[in-house]
Amino acid sequence: MIVCEIDGEIAGNCQIVFNNKIKTRHRAEVMVGILQKYWGLGIGTAMFEEMIRIAERRQVSQIELGYIEGNERGRRLYEKMDFVQYGERPDAIRFRDGTMQKEILMIRKMHS
Ligand SMILES: CC(C)(COP(=O)(O)OP(=O)(O)OC[C@H]1O[C@@H](n2cnc3c(N)ncnc32)[C@H](O)[C@@H]1OP(=O)(O)O)[C@@H](O)C(=O)NCCC(=O)NCCS
């Protein structure tokens, strides 16, 4: 996990999760979240650049993520970082009123 701190406040964090199992250790999963008042400052981009560097050092061959449909800001960031959609998980999120939302699944192959 990497944390971004601004004036003593945690502005956001990201995580890259590696697998130990032999058959899945070529894959890693990434997650990111930034407080809304700090959106659009390039923090998300910087976090992805660092996570990609770490993934390269660990020699994984692909990194994966999921986001909830409608998160266009996230999608733009992920596409900029060379992630492509490979699928979607229907009804991944259920709200109290019964409304469902799907999760969009993206992958970035490492170019090594
Ligand atoms: C998605 C998120 C991580 C982006 O972080 P950020 O620090 O705002 O991202 P950046 O400032 O680096 O901007 C990255 C890209 O987002 C896109 N973007 C920026 N402002 C945007 C806007 N107003 N509308 C749409 N896309 C926008 C751009 O493509 C931008 O890249 P560019 O400036 O080079 O064109 C952040 O908004 C966030 O934490 N959102 C809530 C939680 C979340 O969605 N988590 C991930 C999904 S589970």
What's the short version?
Helices cover 22% and strands 46% of the residues.
3D architecture notes:
The chain has about 110 residues and is α+β, with helices and mostly antiparallel strands. The protein has a single domain (about 1-110), classed as 3-Layer(aba) Sandwich (Aminopeptidase), CATH 3.40.630.30. The chain has helices spanning about 45-60, 70-80, and strands at about 1-5, 10-20, 25-35, 60-70, 85-95, 100-110. A six-stranded mixed β-sheet has the order 1-2-3-4-6-5. The mean pLDDT is about 95. The structure holds coenzyme A. Coenzyme A (COA) binds near residues 39 and 76.
Name of the level-1 CATH class: Alpha Beta
What number is the mean pLDDT? Answer: 97
Q: Write the CATH fold name.
A: Aminopeptidase
The span between the termini is: 24 Å
Anisotropy-based shape: globular
Helicity, as a percent range = 10-25%
Number of strands: 6
Strand content: over 45%
Helix count equals 2
Can you tell me the CATH superfamily? Gcn5-related N-acetyltransferase (GNAT)
Bound molecules: coenzyme A
> Class by helix and strand content?
alpha+beta
What is the CATH architecture term? 3-Layer(aba) Sandwich
How can the largest sheet be summarized?
A: 6 strands, mixed
Low confidence ranges? none
Main sheet: strand order: 1-2-3-4-6-5
- Rg estimate, integer Å: 15 Å
Order of helices and strands: EEEHEHEE
Number of domains: 1
